[in-house]
Amino acid sequence: MCAAGRSSRRRAASRLRKTKMSDDKLLPLRQKIDAIDAQILDLLNQRARVAQEVGHVKAETNAPVFRPEREAQVLRRAADRNPGPLLGADIQTIFREVMSACRALEKRVVVAYLGPEGTFSEQAVYQQFGHAIEGLSCVSIDEVFRDAEAGTADFGVVPIENSSEGVINRTLDLLLQTTLTISGEVSIPVHHSLMTASGKMEGITRICAHSQALAQCNAWLNQNYPSIERQAVASNAEAARMAGEDQSVAAIAGEIAGQKYNLQTVNAHIQDDPHNRTRFAVIGRLRTAPSGRDQTSIVLSVPNKAGAVYNLLAPLARHGVSMTRFESRPARMGAWEYYFYVDLEGHEQDEKVAQALEELRQNAAFFKLLGSYPLGL
Amino acid sequence: MCAAGRSSRRRAASRLRKTKMSDDKLLPLRQKIDAIDAQILDLLNQRARVAQEVGHVKAETNAPVFRPEREAQVLRRAADRNPGPLLGADIQTIFREVMSACRALEKRVVVAYLGPEGTFSEQAVYQQFGHAIEGLSCVSIDEVFRDAEAGTADFGVVPIENSSEGVINRTLDLLLQTTLTISGEVSIPVHHSLMTASGKMEGITRICAHSQALAQCNAWLNQNYPSIERQAVASNAEAARMAGEDQSVAAIAGEIAGQKYNLQTVNAHIQDDPHNRTRFAVIGRLRTAPSGRDQTSIVLSVPNKAGAVYNLLAPLARHGVSMTRFESRPARMGAWEYYFYVDLEGHEQDEKVAQALEELRQNAAFFKLLGSYPLGL
């Protein structure tokens, strides 16, 4: 050990010498950076003091502390005006934290989310609100809604659609009934892995996953396992459970589900689109003003007769409003067979959107505006 | 629906009027903020350009892109010089992202961590390196070490101690063998919940958890369930598994473990210290220079005879070096019965630490310096 110890100490000494040399050249540059940091620090606190004045005005008029449209504008402006070399996305991460810290001086916003802590939902919370907030981990989507409705939380963050289960039915059901509105949308990148109990593909005769995940990995599966049967099951978690019990089944799922059922990864990140994302809705008692680039979510229903849906949606085309998403789902109760969840470009206060919405409202048997909110960044 | 619709629209209109009033007063303040943001944006990019010059110098001398001691100094200075009103912790969150974004212009640091994605380990990565990095999720602690040793990753982040399992044996074992050094420490807040299969405490005769978790919830348990037997088990996850199978068992565990075994929360956040944390070690091929407030981790062993440990540690007392942590664990193999993991105040290059370390090295049958690194913020 003695000789090895000496040689390792010699290496360390040489490394330290090299570090020292570079430090002499770096010192003046670091002093420059320190001087810039001092100015940034000063400006951040100047900003915070103005934000406190904003807080006083808001308190007088009872206006909400968190204004999603305003924060979206600040983030867009920062990215648009950014001359570089910093990347726009990194600039937005910084400004999100700046706004979060300033906002926290007025009030530390409480955000309920579907727990547990330390999962994607919590990351979605930070992505919308920055880190200077108080997170409230809930055991169910129902509890998130209840906390936000009761005022225990200022906002809730719930999954609305992911590639493991498709749309999240419970969230859609609760959106139908709630008095809350959607005030924002967050998406988080998700990756799929091909997993089996053994970590190998020998003896595998079926690859199981939710249909959405199968579709998202289609090209990769065609290329790598074209001859293995694919089977759509209720969710990727269900596929993982099956793979844990049946040596002939491989599952496509996220790593958390794989870990739960003691699966080994055969291939990671197999989805065709590397930017595959899970969507979350931000819900609150707040109605969001226009930010300039917004989206409106509505849900509606019509009696089940031929052409009804087509006729229902005619006002959108007439007023030149683009539909960006359209989901239908069977109604559990009531007089209608389907609910249609529709996302539109624009804000409910934009004139053409307002007119189209008014006509939709008149024509539909059931109509509910879920919210207008800034488009995700 | 019609009357309700009208009244809800009236409320919405009143809300919008109020928002409008407040907006008139807010406009000049927002313009001030926008002007400050423009200056911040400019300074951030100035900083980035100087950081690029730093990158050129580093490239010439082959110096590492990420210097933990330098980043720790920047964060401490920002908090120390912060006049307010922003909180020091929030300022540090902002500056961490600023450094991360600037560093990414030189090189997007690759950090391997114990996956899955979307868990506490990933949060620990962001807490050390900011968000402008590339995370590499690994399936085992061994793989994190391998990736960092092989250079696939620039750094690794591994759990070293938590309140669910105490020290993480696998990490300690690998630290013994690795050529990597510890270049930082991160801690993440963790919460314990009392959980049962039913979500109620009726019929519960035992509360199970890892001994560390039981100790951390001691006061709360004494106050709330003084007469229920407590049983220490191998880990909180094991306790959760037992509670899932046995209606008479309650588990203390984190929510992720509870979810895995379909438990319901009876009480959340029951640990006595609300700032209870899990520790992670940052490991890399880099030897970290002094930051001014550092910690040194070593591991050593002595032959098993009376007074040996006491004698071994005498140099620390003699040179006035404080010991902040001392863990002993049985050796699996080799001539010694125990390894001692010791954390010291100060850096290996501090004179008194260097002298104490040299004496320890001479006296110990086995001695390894795991690393000197900035104290957690």
From TrEMBL, chains A, B:
InterPro entries: ACT-like_dom_sf (IPR045865), ACT_dom (IPR002912), Chor_mutase/pphenate_deHydtase (IPR008242), Chorismate_II_sf (IPR036263), CM_dom_sf (IPR036979), CM_II_prokaryot (IPR002701), G/b/e-P-prot_chorismate_mutase (IPR010957), Preph_deHydtase (IPR001086). Pathway: Amino-acid biosynthesis; L-phenylalanine biosynthesis; phenylpyruvate from prephenate: step 1/1; Metabolic intermediate biosynthesis; prephenate biosynthesis; prephenate from chorismate: step 1/1. Its main location: cytoplasm. GO terms for cellular component: cytoplasm. Gene3D superfamilies: 3.30.70.260, Chorismate mutase, Periplasmic binding protein-like II. Residues 110-285 form the Prephenate dehydratase domain. One of its GO terms (molecular function) is chorismate mutase activity. Residues 20-110 form the Chorismate mutase domain. One of its GO terms (biological process) is L-phenylalanine biosynthetic process. Its EC number is 4.2.1.51, 5.4.99.5. CDD domains: ACT_CM-PDT, PBP2_PDT_1. It catalyses: chorismate = prephenate; prephenate + H(+) = 3-phenylpyruvate + CO2 + H2O. It is found in: Cytoplasm. Keywords: Amino-acid biosynthesis, Aromatic amino acid biosynthesis, Cytoplasm, Isomerase, Lyase, Multifunctional enzyme, Phenylalanine biosynthesis. Residues 297-374 form the ACT domain. SUPFAM superfamilies: ACT-like, Chorismate mutase II, Periplasmic binding protein-like II. The record marks T278 as: Essential for prephenate dehydratase activity. Catalyzes the Claisen rearrangement of chorismate to prephenate and the decarboxylation/dehydration of prephenate to phenylpyruvate. This is Bifunctional chorismate mutase/prephenate dehydratase. It comes from Herbaspirillum seropedicae (strain SmR1).
